[in-house]
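Researcher: Here's the sequence for the chain we discussed earlier.
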Amino acid sequence: MPDQNQQQDNGDRLDNMDILRSALMGEQANNYDEKISDLENQINWIREEMRTQGNEVQNTLDQKINEVLQAIQVSHFHSETQTPSAPAPTPQKQPPANYTSAPPQPPQPPSPATPAPTARPKQTSSPEPSIPSPSISPEADLDFFSEQISSILGSNVTLEDSIETTASPVPDPPATPPIIPQPTYGQNASVPPQSTVKQPIAPPSTASSQPPSTYNVPQPAYNPPSPNPTPQSPRLERNFNIVAEDEATQINNLRSVLRDEDVMRLRQVNNQLDYKLRQVEEYLAASQQPLKDLLPLMTELVQLKIQEAKTPEAPKHLPPKQRNRLSWGTIFAFLVLLLLIPLGFYGYWLRRAFLLEQDVAIALATNPDLAIYRLKPDLRNNTLYLTGKLPTQTLSDQAEAIAQNTLPAFEISNNILVVEKPLTPEQRQAEIDKIIEPLNNVNGIQVTTQLDGDRLTVDGTVLQGDDIPAIITALEQINGIEQITNNIQIETQPISTRLYFDQNSAAVKPSDVDLKLSKVKEYLLQYPNINLRIMGYQHPTESATDVALKRAQSAQLLLQDQGIDRRRILALGVNQPPSDITTEDPIWLSRTVIFDIADSTPQD
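Model: Thanks. This is the structure I predict for it:
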């Protein structure tokens, strides 16, 4: 029966699993396959355990039946060989044998039996059974016992009813009481009891008589309590003291003991297995309930997947609203991301520009000349714009230089407004002197000024015409001057005097020293910052080749004697006439010395 039930359960389970696999065809099938596989493993384990325990119970019953048959055969053998004239020896107390410590012993050969007295010993726990027939065969009794055991195993009565049910009456034994074995059962039902030798029953009148031998009824093996354990009868908890009277009493007692013990064990095992199977069935029913609800949906899903496989280019079978909702959500998220990226870069640039502006502002505030003025740096597009107001252009240029040193990688746009306050006449004259004095130290420039309120008049001479606009521009930068009058003249030939010499001579005539060299001396004293260059010339008809240089050196020595620094005079000679003298001119015009302004200071 367990094998047939197992095959039937396996067949049903495989059908359900096939339905689940064919319906799911996805990730959910894997999860349910794992759960169903676990449940199948548990059911198989429970079934194996049921088979194992059932085999143990069957082996125990077979072993006990063999022991009962052996005891009946030994009892029958003694009843045939016993003589009524032999006196019964005093029974000795046999130590109880434990299943767990002593293995079964083989039966010992029977000792010579003596006839027992007519008086019967008093029973301690059970009434004397009635014996309707003086003789009974062991084979008939064994058949009757087997039928009782089979009816017990096949019945569904409760434990209380099985305990209260008793065997059918057994006929009385013959007049001569047989010798009864005295086995003692331990608490382990799986180990067979220890066989003992039958001892004759002592007469009650003997003073040294021992108490009658008894059977210790084995207690059922311990099993873990089930959720609904079967209440044990108090009749099983106590030990039955069975007095060995005759063969019928032994068989009745053995039947009662075996039936109570085995039925109790079978019912406990059955209750445990029923409880485990009930838990498994409840779990399977709970786990299959959602699958039953999802089965139509899974079937529809399988049909959709089959249709998609047949038409690969078909669009996804999604509701229109869901598709639009997904697409619009994706587009919105993408647009938000596109907006956040430039905003992040812009925020980073603003933060960086703010920090750089703070660096420039700190650098301007730490300068003593600019600390009292409010200047604002503004960084835009790699260009730093400086705004504010300063009283002078000098301070504006200084602020620009500080900003450039702070941010060398950026361009500087100086938008500082110069707001100068009017100067007093003394301050204006001081500013004019600062400009004119350096100009008069330049060679060929001699300038004088005259201030009248906000009007300025400039007089003087210059050797080069380009120097006049530079002088006027410098004077216009002075605050408070509204009008400038320019009277500066350009001196084309500062010294027009020439010295003439005799043929092949380098001596200066005395008349030229007083009239001509004195004018040269006055010019050099008037312009102390200019230098003089003396150029000597000669006619080709003159024999001396260096007479031109000697004539220039003679004039240089005369000016030195009159108080002019020799370092301001440069003497040079040319072996030809001047450039402005032709061949038609007189020869004496070629023997001359010309004075000119030198571009650089002569060296010693």
